[in-house]
Amino acid sequence: MWTRQHKKRNTGILILPAITAVFLSYFGFHAFHGEYGIYSMYRLQERVNVLEAGLEKVKAERMRLEQRVQLLHDGSLDKDMLDEHARRALNLAGSDEIIVMRRQFDN
User: What pLDDT digit, counting tens, does each position of 18-27 carry?
Assistant: First the structure.
């Protein structure tokens, strides 16, 4: 009769902790570096700040343009503004006029 004697191995009790460690490592990595992770939140916040600064510039430019357009509305037509737009659009000037060209600065 054959008898087998098995020596008990302790490797079986390490399987569940090993699988748990791999599982937690995978999801922990993606919690920080994934598409919706913590670092992604910081990058999105920086982009929001940049875009909000750009929005403020655009709003200021729009307000400036709206004020200039307001000068051209009926009832409050500013003759100098109308003359300036007409001369710029037609690229005309009188023979006795001095033309001063200036750069448009972005504010």
Answer: 999 999 999 9
CA atoms of 81 and 67, how far apart (whole Å):
11
pLDDT of the residue at 12: 78
- Provide the angle, in degrees to the nearest 10, between the axes of the packed helices 38-70 and 12-33: 10
Tell me the pTM: 0.47
Cα 57 from Cα 44, distance rounded (Å): 20
Q: Where are the domains of the chain?
A: 16-90
Q: CA distances (Å), 60 to each of 5, 47, 102, 103, in order?
A: 87, 20, 21, 19
Q: Write the single-letter amino acid at 16.
A: L
Distance CA 24, CA 13 (A): 18
**Identity of the amino acid at 9:** R
Residues whose CB falls within 8 Å of the CB of residue 6, separated by 6 or more in sequence, listed in order:
none
